[in-house]
Amino acid sequence: MTTTIYHNPDCGTSRNTLAMIRNAGIEPSVIDYLQNPPSRDQLKAMIADAGLAVRAAIREKSTPFDALGLANPSLSDDQLLDAMLAHPILINRLFVITPVGTRLCRPSEVVLYILPETHKGAFAKEDGEQVLDAGGKRLV
User: Fold this and answer.
1) What is the pTM of this model?
2) What is the pLDDT of residue 119?
């Protein structure tokens, strides 16, 4: 199963999502999107495939969102995409693409909806929250 994760190794949600993918027996293509952001076309496709509006794909917390005036409702999708491409930290994390679909995996367990049921047993997130039982079945 070809799987791609747009990953930020400093983010716990991103690390948890990557670990859940690997727990399903999948070694994904890992793209550090802060160092290697998607192209405009890739970003537009990910947002659309995830069923999101462009504004819903923008990260506000710990970003230049306010300084850039991105809360302004008159900004077009193209202007928002321009800002996201100029400042990849504005791309809400994290996107995962599988043959089943594309999701913005916040919270991390959203990834379970686009992975096969091939989990290798129990899984708990970094904070200890149990997500899969010993048989690899979802608890959330």
Assistant:
1) 0.92
2) 86
